[in-house]
Structures are given as C-alpha cells and as structure tokens.
Design brief:
Layout: H1 5-10, E1 14-20, H2 22-31, H3 41-47, H4 68-71, E2 85-94, E3 102-115, E4 119-130, E5 133-145, E6 169-174, H5 179-183, H6 196-201, H7 211-226, E7 234-241, E8 250-257, E9 261-268, E10 274-284
Antiparallel strand pairs: 1-3, 2-5, 2-7, 3-4, 4-5, 6-8, 7-10, 8-9, 9-10
Amino acid sequence: MPIDAAKAVAAEPRSGEISWTAKDVQLYHLGIGAGLPATDPDELRYTLESRLQVLPSFATVAGSGAPGVISGLSMPGVEVELARVLHGGQSLEIHRPLPVEGTATTTSRIAAVYDKGKAAVLVLRTEVADADGPLWTNDSQIFVKGEGGWGGDRGPSARPEPPTGEPDKVVERRIREDQALLYRLSGDWNPLHADPEFAAKAGFERPILHGLCTYGITLKAVVDTLLGGDVGRVRSYATRFAGVVYPGETLRIRMWDQGDAVRVAVTVVERDDAPALTDTVVHHA
C-alpha cells in the first residue's frame, strides 16, 4: 500500500527555515482579492507597505514553500499520485500576530493517518516559531482517494452542529477569472489550479480555485465585517473543504456572531448555493 500509516506517524519531524517580506504579504493579499477598491483605506491596510497588517491565513503560504497538501506527500511512509489528492480541511492556531517580515523555524510531521474506507486522510501538523517564540500551528487534512480500507482508525467523526437562525451578516465575493493564477504565485504550483489537461485527469471540467484561496477570502470577509478590520483579534480558524470553486464564480459568505467565535458557511451562488466551506469557525479575542 502506498501509505504506510505506522511509518508515517513514527517518522522524525522535519525541520526547516522560512522567511518572508512585506512583498510576499502584499502578493498573498492580492491573491485573495484584497485591493478593491484600490484607494479604499480599509483595503490599503492589506496592500500598502506603510499601513500593512498581516491576515493570519498568510501563515498557510509563508515562506513560499510547498503547502501542506504537497509537502505532506513527500513525508516518510507516503507515496501517492498528486492527481488523487484533495485538500480536505485546514485549521490554524495563531499564538501571536504575524510580523510583516520575518524568519522562522518550521517543524512538520504526520500527526495522524485515518482510514475512511474509500480514502485515507493524512493530518500534517506544522509548528512555526521565531526567535521570540511560537508564531502559529497549522494542520492540513490531506484526502487521498482510493487509499483507505486497510482497517485503520477512522478518526474523529463528531462535527459541530450547523448554526441556526438567520446569519448576522451575509457578503458576496466575486472570484476573478485569473484569481487562481495570481494566488499560485504565493507558492502553490499544483497544476490542478492552472492546467486544463491536469484538471481533467483529476476529474474536473476545468482548473479549480485553491481551497486555501477560498479560506483566505473568507477570513478576510470575517475580519473586515465583524472584527473591525483588526487581524490581531483572530485566535484560531478552522474549516472543512466541502466542494470546489471555479474562477469566475461568486462566493456567498454567511456569518453568525457567537460572542468569542464566528460561525461561517460559504457557498457558490451560481450553483444554487453549492457548499464550498463547512464546519467553519473563527475564534477571536
């Protein structure tokens, strides 16, 4: 079997160093749709170096290295084809506000491998710290089609109850036709998001938007709408990728304010509110 669960979990953590600059932060923000309108003061805090703050989801691309979905496939005990891999979910814990530029040490390991029957799920955990201490902890859930069924642990099955009642806020965000091409410049070069032939091989009618791009767009909407534009209030952010988004479509982002947390549901307007992100929670100060 291409995935050796015991070997993957027992492997020594992999360490490395990453660094980023204000330019990397600005490029990421543009990749998730910041800067419209270009002269809006609320947008300039994402695009202008003299006012720059860092949206916490930048942590998923900091250092411009391979994202969890790709780097997890090179860990010991894992040998699968990229075309059979999907990003199942993402969770991020922020230990303190991300600096506009910095250098940090990353420590990554496969924290768990779950047997979902027709698929396997790898949990790649990356802990990041700089000279002043921990910065963030990132968990990527990597869904590998056709690699389950060996009788392993199915993993946690409990999911949060969906929010009830009318949302407190609803916003829509149009995805540009070139959004995936711009976003991939932050480090995710998976051809699934640019190459029509590769996308067809993976079972899609055309290249799809990165799940982590939708993830960033959604967090920005929550920060701008319910958190007063203050990125420093975000403590953690988790989601499950429930469906694909194609460039050119429109996201409908519903938000329920629950005190110290915001529950979120993201759907695609043009496909009768087909789900894009579910089980989405932003905890904040």
